[in-house]
## 1
Amino acid sequence: MLLKRIIPCLDVQDGRVVKGVGFQSLRDAGDPAFQAARYDAEGADEIVVLDVSATVEGRSTMIETIRAVREVISIPLVAGGGVRSIEDAARLLESGADKVSINSAAVRRPELIAELSERFGRQCVVVAIDATRRTDGGWEVVVDGGRTSTGIDVIDWARRSVELGAGEILLTSRDRDGTGLGYDLDLVRGVTESVSVPVIASGGARNASDLESAFEAGATGALLAGVLHDRITSITSLRLELAALGRELRPC
């Protein structure tokens, strides 16, 4: 059985970490390399760095930031935002990323998933899915930083992504993002029961109980951002609390 992972996320815009609510009202949350080094020292299992404006601005992901983060951490690094081609992915991997996250470009051209998987291996390809709940109780895929509705069912897209070569799913609830209300467990459960690859739950976490609930719902990783940036909690505290709940984690 895979050990569960605690994964800080650094959403980056103009070289700075930012955080908002529902992908909106972004505020400054520090220097990416500084935050990454802190989280590594506290016991993070992996770090995700996402350029949140690259796709909307039509440019590639920030290579300099990835290099700076890679220099100060020893744990796996996932990089994404604005990845539209094999060349974009190669630049990130050459700059120190271990995996590449793709989102909007994959929705618009699903063949990109297969191309990256064939070139770099399935283990390097993370398909990020941003989801919002529909009135009928299901979930719809949104792209462009949550700005654009697609009409695509999240469960269907998760399945197709894996069929095309995704090695992992990063699943974010836009509705829960930044709220501290906990992960959308129905969403997490729906996707984890539908695919055979690891799923990272994202959007809404505030405490160890939220992480444990996501793990119980089938997630292999739990992503956090604002509560760590604002020092509401720490990875050290989360690890201790999860251990007290009987959850086995990777030794630090």
Note: The chain has one domain: 5-244.
## 2
Amino acid sequence: MPVKNYQWEIAYHIVMNDRCNVWSSMGSGKTLATLLAIDMLLVSEDVWPVLIIAPKRVAQSVWVEEAAKHEVTKHMKLQRVIGNLKTREQALANIEASVFVTNFEVVPWLVDHFRDRWPFRMVVIDESSRLKGHRAWSGGGKRTRALHKKAWGRTCRWVNLTGTPAPNGLIDLWGQQHFVDGGLRLGNRFSSFRYRWFDGKRVGHHPMAMVYTPKKKADDEIRHMISDVTITVDVRDYMDVGDLVENVIYAHLPPKARTAYGGMERQMFLDLEQGTAEAMNAPAVTSKCHQIAQGALYLDDGGFEKLHDAKLEVLESIIEESAGESLLVAYHYKHDLERLQARFPLGIALGDDPSLIKAWNEKTVPLMFIHPQSAGHGLNLAEGGHTLVFFGLDWNLEYHQQVIERIGAVRQAQAQTGKTPLIHYIVAKDTVDESILTRLREKKSVQEVLVDAMKRRKQ
């Protein structure tokens, strides 16, 4: 796949600015663009070694896999620095690597490990919204405090990667920008930044319980202040997207869940070979495969056993990268909803209360969980947002199409939002999820896509 023009624009922006921001929407290919910039800099100047810090899931798979699948970057030597202490130390000893990839949780250890011998000339922060809690005087959280100690001096280049912030997400920019310029553009104190561009409103009785909303000109003024070091890319401005933009994001099952899934999948394929796809056993086994891919499995007593958080971690990244945009999240199983609410307590499940729909469309609900079967016909949710995340997929094509239409192109046009619907599919890699997505896109029968999957696995 050729590199797109806007990806080259991102790469050149990074090359031409020692310390900068890249605001680029999900699915725009900013990972490849950043790798291209790193590759150019490794040739033209002394930025070795480069450190990329990302959420754990992204550090484990995305950067290394992205570099390997493109002709222009597959020559690059990337080394993951994740896992236990011994594994991390061995990884850092890889003298052939030019780019090291780690996760945020490792940062305090990494800083302590090198102390005054910090080697990294260039640091890339994937999902830099994780830096939003940084404060110049209090220091913020443990990870940001540790990282800020090494943000200057030997680290001559710095890149923040995040999604394009919505107006309500602007308050999170100060901490990120401080790593870029030390307070030059947005001020050296967060309190001053907040006072200048935001209005506070107390919620509840506690004096510290405040909600801050941007003032009338805050969006334009803040963006103007940092425009010289910031490039903004929205994939919808560069692609012929038709009625909507679709983005598939893969979740990788951890080893124990993969083993459990493999055993269940063999039983599913055995049933298919025996011609019993419509019998009682095969649909039940297929459902169990689907549940394992989701992260939990129903038990005989009606409860469920949690198996993994792979999809929850992907959703967490999407929420961070949405940078203040409201999100609809479609789930399938009841255990999906329970785990979603436990992980994201601010999320609200759409029920029978009509006030929730009104609250969503007034943008006072940042995260809403919906079930396609109950949130289908009739609802208009376009005024509240234009992004839908499928945390769980279902075989039912009608439900799938109907829930998309709640924020679809027609609804967006009716609401005069000027927005293009953005659909994220969280798909467990090498699972029945891929077959379900094929069914929804190609309108094949359930049996057809399962038999096709069986044949591919056996090749």
Note: The chain has two domains: 5-237, 240-459.
